[in-house]
Structures are given as C-alpha cells and as structure tokens.
Amino acid sequence: MKSNVSLFNQYWTDIYFHLHYSHQEKISHQAIRILQLIDKKQEINVNNIASHLDISHNTASEHIKRMINKKYILKQRNPLDERKVILNLTDYGKEVLHRNTSLDELKLKKLLEQLDENEKRTIESALKLLSERAKECM
Known about the structure:
By secondary structure, the chain is mainly α. Helix 3 packs across helix 4. This is MarR family winged helix-turn-helix transcriptional regulator.
C-alpha cells in the first residue's frame, strides 16, 4: 500500500501531466526555478538565486544574463537603496512562467464543468489548505 506522500505525489504528477499547457519555449528547468523564485519572493538578487539553487554567484549571474537577453527578467535598482540590484519578471517572463508551471485554463475549465458544486468546493478547499500550509513550510 502506498503512503499518503506517495499518493499525493502521484495525484499531483497525474494532474500536471494531463492538464499542463503544451510548451512553446525551449527553457531549462533551472530557468523556470529562477522565474518562480523571482515571482514568489520579494526583492530577489543574484546572491539569493545562487543560494536558493546552491550554485556559485558566477553561475547564477550567467543564468540571469541569458534570461535578461531573452527578455524574461530585468534588473532594477532598489529605489530605497540604489546600491542594491533587484530582479523582476517582465510581462513576457510572467507569460513564460505561467505556461511552464500552471495548468492550462481551458483544460481545467472543461474538467471543472464535469464536476458538481460540492466536488468543486471540496477540491478548492483542499487545494487552498495545501497552498496555505506549503507557504508556511518555507
């Protein structure tokens, strides 16, 4: 019998496999992780990227340069402390991140139309609880 952890992982991978967007960009997993970090955290810089991914500052800097060239992210000076450089997603970077980490909204809408209101509420409640608790783990 599978543990809850194994079952949850199986459910998650099944959901993502069947409902993700078809990928349009050639983008590395590392680049997606960087986009996610910039999206989810405030005032991210190259040092934060290096630390989070457990890579050298130089390697993180090279990733950032490539992503700036692809128009996924941009560097901006912190208005409160001009010595600090902050990384932000461009609108295009947000679109790329969405297509590579989110569920396809048309597929999801079609699936939700097949569920009754009680099933929808149950799923929403469970996902909301998981999301809230996941944020507490960081």
